[in-house]
Amino acid sequence: MVLPIDAPTPRLFAEKYNLAPQTRPVPQTMNADLEANCRHCLVEVGSGGTFLEVHAKSRDPAIVQWGFDYLLKKFTNHWGERPHLIVAHGAQWSRDSKRDFKVVGGKVVELDSQGNEEDDLEEP
Fold it and tell me: Which residues constitute the domain of residue 94?
């Protein structure tokens, strides 16, 4: 704050003049259809199967698939262990990091339906 030269003290100047910014309500647009159309979500699951955090919701499944791969790499790099992430469409789970992936030699490896290693998700 810049005060005039003749201001007695900053405290007295602030008491004399109303310096509070003018507040106005921010308009909120509520659209129930927007939330209803975001059926695909990326969720972090805690121990016991509870949902810890919803990382993303989208109408497009490709967005949450990309987010799944990104967070799996990011969390594995930072904490060295695989987080429990799922991609869900409504109540159906399509990807599960604890069931479909494992860490081998510092790399996240995707498993096929028989449990065999497939392509690497990330190079160190």
Answer: 39-120
Quick check: is 66 in a domain? Answer: yes
Give me the number of domains the chain comprises: 1
| pLDDT given for residue 124 in this prediction | 42
Question: Does the residue 55 lie in any domain?
Answer: yes
The candidate with the shortest Cα–Cα distance to 92, out of 37, 36, 33, 39, is: 39
Question: pLDDT, tens digit, for every residue of 72-109?
Answer: 888 877 766 778 888 988 777 788 877 777 666 666 66
Q: How many angstroms separate the CA atoms of 96 and 102, rounded?
A: 11
pTM metric for this prediction: 0.56
For residue 62, which amino acid is it? A
Mean pLDDT of 14-35: 73
Cα separations (Å) of 124 from 7, 68, 108?
62, 18, 10
- Residue 81, classed as helix, strand or coil, is coil
In a domain, 87, yes or no: yes
On the CB side of 102, how many CA atoms lie within 13 Å of its CA? 9
pLDDT value for 47? 81
pLDDT at 62: 92
Please tell me the distance from the alpha carbon of residue 123 to that of residue 95, in angstroms, as a whole number. 21
